[in-house]
Specification:
By secondary structure, the protein is an alpha+beta fold. The protein has one domain: 2-Layer Sandwich (Alpha-Beta Plaits). It has 8 helices and 4 strands; from the N terminus they run E-H-H-E-H-H-E-H-H-E-H-H. The protein has helices at 10-14, 18-28, 42-48, 58-65, 80-88, 101-105, 120-130, 144-147, and strands spanning 2-8, 31-38, 70-77, 114-116. The longest helix has 11 residues, at 18-28. The two termini are 13 Å apart. It binds 2'-deoxyadenosine-5'-diphosphate and magnesium ion. The site of 2'-deoxyadenosine-5'-diphosphate has 9 residues, from loops.
Length: 149
């Protein structure tokens, strides 16, 4: 089992897409172990996006994610990091495949609705940034025996 860090950016929240997007992860068979709506402090946004510091889009990205609440999730499942990235799709909505979240709901590269950790290392780092120790739920889903083979 892996746990990955996903958040819905201010555009998704403001556009009323929380339910539609969360429903995709739920229907896929993944398990939510953390969920919260929050305004993002600037220092958290800067730590989260540290790898992009100095890039032309960096200042706009920090301003965007701190401008209005985001909906943060910790999502658990077998191979959850890669599975969630596949559900999310390519960074730019115009290039993202139909059937993916970005491919179905957006047209932008910057306002692309959702973040998902890109590796297990990133997921561990990001989960520690966004959730406190002990904040994630413990859940035993008996149905998982029919979700995975
Ligand atoms: P992803 O979110 O698909 O992992 P990334 O890590 O390369 O993409 O970039 C982080 C975010 O930065 C991305 O979701 C939106 C923004 N971004 C990336 N490239 C951009 C660009 N060329 N123009 C505007 N925003 C960009
Ligand atoms: Mg990324």
């Amino acid at each position: 089992m892996e746990t990955t860090l996903i958040f819905l950016k201010p555009d998704a929240v403001q556009r009323g897409l929380i339910g539609s997007i969360v429903g995709r992860f739920e229907a896929k068979g993944l398990t939510f172990v953390g969920m919260k709506l929050m305004n993002v402090p600037k220092d958290l946004a800067e730590k989260h996006y540290a790898e992009h510091q100095g890039k032309p889009f960096y200042d706009g990205l920090i301003a965007f994610v701190t401008s209005s609440p985001v909906f943060v999730m910790a999502i658990r499942g077998v191979n959850a990091v890669a599975v969630c990235r596949t559900l999310i799709g390519a960074t730019n909505g115009q290039k993202a495949d139909p059937g993916t979240i970005r491919g179905d709901f957006g047209m932008s590269g910057g306002y692309n609705m959702i973040h998902g950790s890109d590796s297990l290392e990133s997921a561990e780092r990001e989960l520690a940034l966004w959730f406190d120790d002990g904040e994630l739920a413990t859940i035993d889903k008996t149905l998982d025996q029919w979700v995975y083979d």
